[in-house]
Amino acid sequence: MKSFNERAYDLLREVPKGKVTTYKEIANALGTSAYRAIGSAMKKNPYAPSVPCHRVVSSDGGIGGFNGCKEGKDITRKINMLMEEGIEFNGNKIKNFNDVIYRFI
DNA sequence: CGGTTGACCAAGT
DNA sequence: GACTTGGCCAACC
Questions:
Q1: What is the pLDDT of residues A25-54, one digit of tens each?
Q2: Nearest CA to A87 among A17, A18, A12, A22?
Q3: What confidence score (pLDDT) does residue A66 get?
Q4: What are the two backbone dihedrals, phi and then psi, of residue A36, each rounded to the nearest 5 degrees?
Q5: CA of A84 to C1' of B4 (A)
Q6: What is the per-residue pLDDT for A73?
Q7: Nearest nt (C1') from A60 Cα
Q8: What pLDDT is attached to residue A72?
Q9: Is the alpha carbon torsion for A19, A66, A25, A10 positive or negative?
Q10: Which nucleotide lies nearest residue A36, CA to C1'?
Q11: Looking at residue A68, what is its pLDDT?
């Protein structure tokens, strides 16, 4: 039986490049509502490059947290990475959020 | 087992 | 648009 966070990582690996998901969607896909626990799991994220934690955003299309995966505390880095994947940003929020969101089919 | 914390969410002010 | 409040659930002490 995998831990809650490992299941979150597993789902996150499913997210294709150029797509993003929300903490809420992940929690919902796991059959729970622990949005916050997802964030905590991402923060721990031992599978750093394998699990694209930068592809997880807030339900508002905003960036949410992201400390830069133990690098710096600059959300612009996360935005920059997502832009490289083809995601359009409008300031600190995703422009075409509804087109890049991935709902764990 | 109770209390605190958290990369959250939704609604109200 | 920014801040506050209440609520949700898992992890940690």
A1: 999 999 999 999 999 999 888 898 889 999
A2: A18
A3: 77
A4: -65, -40
A5: 39
A6: 58
A7: B9
A8: 46
A9: positive
A10: B8
A11: 60
- Specify the nucleotide whose C1' lies closest to residue A56 (CA): B7
**Nucleic strand C contacts from chain A, 14-43, CB < 7 Å:** 32-37, 40-41
Q: Which residues of chain A have pLDDT under 70?
A: 67-73
What's the CA–C1' distance between A15 and B6, in Å?
A: 24
CA of A2 to C1' of C1 (A): 41
User: Which top CATH class is A4-100?
Assistant: mainly alpha
Only one residue has tokens 């896909």, namely A29
Please indicate whether residue A69 is annotated as part of the active site: no
Interatomic CA distance for residues A40 and A43, integer angstroms: 5
What mean pLDDT is reported for chain A?
Answer: 89
